[in-house]
């Protein structure tokens, strides 16, 4: 079933991007449905970061169209409605977790404590810390945090803007399985509150944690589907095998 326009948080049509003379995205079409946790999966160099940059409106494109929350990507009014966490942590090492969040909250106009109507209005520092499970680390210096905790501080700063769409570029890279699991649980919690999440990863087994999947390979979309449909259509039992099947036998449009 095609999603209606009102259900689509991100719509990409015939997107083409050339970076340094190389085609980084080639005729990419996809739709990210509102309120879903969508995984953008593919091997290193497939074009995941480039696609996210195009969605953020910071990527020069050679052709095609990208619409985000009904507006052209990069529109000024999207700045507060879309959160982006890159692979490089963008927090201050010589401040505590809470000091970092208070600093970003001030910039974004987010409250320090939850208001009377918790769950309504902007996300507070307390709520953001709670959501990422860092309540017990609030007074710890960022430079002493583990890799997974550091990723979660970046995620918490993005939550402060109460974005409708959250774009996360390989947030679990380099983390152990336990931390990866806890981050995916956090993503699910954020999605359950109605936020649309687009999360990239090159670890195929993370596919099962998503509502929807977009598989990228060599600048093209191999499949735009659900985890269950991916396994069914390829006759495989895990996401790695499904990906290899698509690579070897051609995708011929796994789009459902
Ligand atoms: N400035 C650049 N000059 C030349 N090639 C580039 C440039 N930036 C990106 N590319 C190429 O574009 C392709 C897509 O890169 P992109 O960063 O989108 O991949 P990715 O899927 O995010 O990879 P990774 O998982 O390793 O982060 C890669 O082949 C990369 O080498």
UniProtKB/TrEMBL annotation:
The keyword Nucleotide-binding applies. One of its GO terms (molecular function) is ATP binding. SMART domains: AAA (SM00382). Keywords: ATP-binding, Nucleotide-binding. InterPro entries: AAA+_ATPase, ABC_transporter-like_ATP-bd, ABC_transporter-like_CS, P-loop_NTPase. PROSITE patterns: ABC_TRANSPORTER_1, ABC_TRANSPORTER_2. Residues 10-243 form the ABC transporter domain. It holds the Pfam family ABC_tran. This is ABC transporter ATP-binding protein. It comes from Georgenia daeguensis.
């Amino acid at each position: 079933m095609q999603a209606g326009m009102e259900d689509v948080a991100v719509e990409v049509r015939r997107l083409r991007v050339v970076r340094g003379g190389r085609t980084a995205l080639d005729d990419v079409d996809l739709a990210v449905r509102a309120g879903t946790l969508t995984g953008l999966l593919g091997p290193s160099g497939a074009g995941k970061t480039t696609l996210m940059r195009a969605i953020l409106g910071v990527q020069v494109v050679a052709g095609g169209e990208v619409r985000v929350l009904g507006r052209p990507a990069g529109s000024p009014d999207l700045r507060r409605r879309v959160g982006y966490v890159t692979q490089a942590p963008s927090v201050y090492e010589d401040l505590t977790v809470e000091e970092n969040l208070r600093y970003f909250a001030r910039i974004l106009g987010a409250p320090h404590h939850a208001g009377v109507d918790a769950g309504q209005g902007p996300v507070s520092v307390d709520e953001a810390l709670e959501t990422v499970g860092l309540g017990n680390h609030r007074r710890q210096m960022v430079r002493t945090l583990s890799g997974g905790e550091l990723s979660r501080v970046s995620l918490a700063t993005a939550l402060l803007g109460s974005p409708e769409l959250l774009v996360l570029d390989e947030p679990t890279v380099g983390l152990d399985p336990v931390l990866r699991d806890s981050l995916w649980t956090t993503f699910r919690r954020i999605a359950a509150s109605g936020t649309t999440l687009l999360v990239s990863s090159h670890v195929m087994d993370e596919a099962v944690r998503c509502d929807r999947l977009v598989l990228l390979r060599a600048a093209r979309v191999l499949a735009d589907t659900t985890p269950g449909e991916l396994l069914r259509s390829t006759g495989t039992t895990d996401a790695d095998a499904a990906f290899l099947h698509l690579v070897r036998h051609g995708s011929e449009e796994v789009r459902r």
